[in-house]
Amino acid sequence: MKYLRLYADENGGSHFEDMQAAFDMAVYAPPAPAFGVSVAVEAKRYVMVHFPAGWDSGLHPVPRRQLFVMLSGRFQGQTSGGAVLDLGPGDVVLMEDTTGRGHSARTLDGTEVHALMVHLE
Q: How many domains does the chain have?
């Protein structure tokens, strides 16, 4: 499974990085048959978020390491260096740009966006 990582470099610039989750077969929910399970990552809590149509931010870092899971709508993220990425339902971003200039984001196509943010710290 592919996902994205958004992180800040030592100069405060934000960047996207393609990542790949690794799975091992495991009996996770007996008596159901085995399926692929990734390594567990500790999480503290989650919030569900709603971005209204037309929402547009300036550059900002994330307040904490978090996993951003798109549920509905269309969203666009941009790094401080100008790399642009369009997101839709099912896309996942590991957000780690807690320092530096951060990233910007906006809703696309006149859609509202619903997402899940899983706080990792």
A: 1
